[in-house]
Design goal:
The complex is a heterodimer. Chain A has no helices and ten strands. Chain A is mostly beta strands. Chain A has a six-stranded mixed beta sheet with strand order 2-10-9-4-5-6, with no helix packed on it. In chain A, strands 1-3-8-7 form a four-stranded antiparallel beta sheet, with no helix packed on it. The relative contact order of chain A is 0.32. Chain B is built from no helices and eleven strands. Chain B is an all-beta fold. In chain B, a hairpin with a 2-residue loop joins strand 7 and strand 8. Helices cover about 0% and strands about 50% of the residues of chain B. The chains are: A mainly beta, B mainly beta. Chains A and B meet through strand 5 of A and strand 4, strand 5, strand 9 and strand 10 of B.
Chain lengths: ~110, ~110
């Protein structure tokens, strides 16, 4: 079964850091570009970042550029999102998704608050 | 950035009646390979998004045939031929032709 499972969310103070993980199974992970998408409380979907299958190329939304870093470990079939200098407006459910957006994880909640 | 504009934002529908959602992009979504990368998603309450339609009009596996997508260039439509109770949720269009990928604001479908 094709599956994505996120973890690593939680409560963090403004200015703090958090690392999200997304464990993939059931498909050839290394051959797919992967994405992070977030959804603020009661809000819509916003694309955050993307990494190519071999990790050689990354892209970021302007709102997170310079603060977030996407990476992957193809040996572990795992996608990561390192989030630094967190702000209240980063509060959201973070989803990982396979390229094409046909497969999504269940999401992990990140709350930035003092 | 490509702006995706959906209408209506709220859609009350009687069970068994049709429903239609419009999505307009601020620029053409035709990619250099000739494909148009426009998806439609359904997000039921408390759930992750689920892709219904890819590349404008291709229905995903397991998606009921009452859902259909159409359009071209900058103007796209999702239609539900007969709304059922399980269709309640928020529907999003999304373009992944251009960077950054962008979503519409969402259309909330409810039963009248």
């Amino acid at each position: 079964e094709v599956q994505l499972v996120e973890s690593g969310g939680g409560l963090v103070q403004p200015g703090g850091s958090l690392r999200l993980s997304c464990a993939a199974s059931g498909f050839a992970f290394r051959t797919y570009r992967m994405h992070w998408v977030r959804q603020g409380p009661g809000k819509g979907l916003v694309w955050v970042s993307s990494v190519k299958g071999d990790g050689s190329s990354t892209d970021y939304a302007d709102s997170v550029k310079g603060r977030f870093t996407i990476s992957r470990d193809n040996a572990k079939n795992t996608l990561y999102l390192q989030m630094n200098s967190l702000r209240a407006e980063d509060t959201a459910v973070y989803y990982c998704a396979r390229d094409g957006f046909d497969v999504w994880g269940q999401g992990t909640m990140v709350t930035v608050s003092s | 950035d490509v702006v995706m504009t959906q209408s209506p934002l709220s859609l009350p529908v009687t069970l068994g009646q049709p429903a239609s959602i419009s999505c307009r992009s601020s620029q053409s979504l035709v990619y250099s390979d000739g494909n148009t990368y426009l998806n439609w998603f359904q997000q039921r309450p408390g759930q992750s998004p689920r892709r219904l339609i890819y590349r404008v009009s291709n229905r995903d596996s397991g998606v009921p045939d009452r859902f259909s997508g159409s359009g071209s260039g900058t103007d796209f439509t999702l239609k539900i031929s007969r709304v059922e109770a399980e269709d309640v949720g928020v529907y999003y269009c999304m373009q992944h032709t251009h960077w950054p990928k962008t979503f519409g604001q969402g259309t909330k479908l409810e039963i009248k």
